[in-house]
Amino acid sequence: MTKLTSPKPEDSLLLTELSNISEIDYEQDPTPFQRQGAEAVIDFIADFAAEGLVRDRRLIALLLTRLKDLQVRDFALGSVTIESLQLYFNAWNWLLSCAPQGFVAPVANLLAAVAYEKGDSTLAHHALDQAIKDDPDYAMTGLLRQVFSSGWSPSTFAVMRAELHPRICDAIFSGSMNP
């Protein structure tokens, strides 16, 4: 079993960047912000793949903020492939260690999903425990807990996730891009 990366001490520069990024205003069209979030996922994973960490605190802050949007979170969830499973596992575990209170639940759920797909249900449940501590009402946490406890095979979960991804891409990118 892999362990969750220990939380890092609060990063004042990251907190400053977080305070400079506004959350999505759903009174207006959220699509440009969701697109920005999906692009942040892509950029974050590329940077993480290159260095095993991400140094750009603005990118980290943008990603943490945009992951609060369900479409962006689901885009991140669906971006994983069997070939990139370990990369996403490492990236979400690293990001979870950076996430301050109030930004943990989405990342912990993403980590839980990839841990489950890797066959590490103990770590998946532990990540969900982290999500609950951050936001007891975060809906995906309960859903994933049910899925993991029901005995769904990781491959069935992966198929469901992969089938959802094209619809999320269409919603975010309006057919103009399919990562």
Number of domains: 1
Oligomeric assembly: single chain
CATH topology: Serine Threonine Protein Phosphatase 5, Tetratricopeptide repeat
Global shape: globular
**Overall CATH architecture:** Alpha Horseshoe
The string of secondary-structure elements, in order, is HHHHHHHHH
Radius of gyration: 15 Å
Query: What is the count of β-strands?
Result: 0
> What fraction strand?
under 5%
> Given the structure, what is the number of helices?
9
Structure description:
- It contains 9 helices and no strands.
- It is mostly helical and 179 residues long.
- It has one domain (12-19, 29-172): Serine Threonine Protein Phosphatase 5, Tetratricopeptide repeat (Alpha Horseshoe), CATH 1.25.40.
- Helix 2 (31-51) packs across helix 3, helix 5 (85-98) runs antiparallel to helix 6 (104-117) and helix 6 runs antiparallel to helix 7 (121-134).
- It is globular and about 40 Å long.
- Residues 175-179 have low confidence and may be disordered.
Topology:
Layout: H1 12-19, H2 31-51, H3 57-66, H4 70-78, H5 85-98, H6 104-117, H7 121-134, H8 139-149, H9 154-173
Helix pairs in contact: 1-3, 2-3, 2-4, 4-9, 5-6, 6-7, 6-8, 7-8
Short summary of the structure?
This protein has 9 helices and no strands.
